[in-house]
Amino acid sequence: MLTKAYGESAMSKARIYEWYKRFQDDREDVEDDERPGRPSTSTTDENVKKVKEMVMNDRRITIREVADDVGISVGSCHEIFSDVLGMKRVAAKFVPKLLNFEQKQRRMEVAQESLNEVNNDAELLKCVITGDEIWVYGYDVETKAQSSQWRHFGSPRPKKARQVRSNV
């Protein structure tokens, strides 16, 4: 009946009964009572400061490593990362290759030279054999999960060159 009269802003029936019982017991405060038990001691300012310092020094550190070093549970450490510091674990975005300015400039020069050669000699393209380049690594490449980092919400994802394990 109250919902019909006042809409969704009306108090629920269970809450009304709860308040009625509180007022019957001569209580004037409608706020929740303190609950028994030990208060949380792991999300203190000191622990938050330690966690923040550790993650700023090494963004690839894991929750388990931080929890062991600080001496708190993994769940509390995750709560500090996500709720208090507003961070989440993100993996690097794979791009085909990461080239610096000089490498890009050199590729432009080679492409321009090739274009000039083709413009000067029309028969040159008949003599050119093309092929795809391959990268060979003498080590095991990091997985996507191994290269993930802690970032604040809204910060850009790190970029990483796409690498493939070699069969050689």
UniProtKB/TrEMBL annotation:
<keyword id="KW-0175">Coiled coil</keyword>
<dbReference type="InterPro" id="IPR036397">
    <property type="entry name" value="RNaseH_sf"/>
</dbReference>
<feature type="coiled-coil region">
    <location>
        <begin position="101"/>
        <end position="128"/>
    </location>
</feature>
<protein>
    <recommendedName>
        <fullName>Mos1 transposase HTH domain-containing protein</fullName>
    </recommendedName>
</protein>
<feature type="region of interest" description="Disordered">
    <location>
        <begin position="28"/>
        <end position="47"/>
    </location>
</feature>
<dbReference type="GO" id="GO:0003676">
    <property type="term" value="F:nucleic acid binding"/>
</dbReference>
<dbReference type="InterPro" id="IPR052709">
    <property type="entry name" value="Transposase-MT_Hybrid"/>
</dbReference>
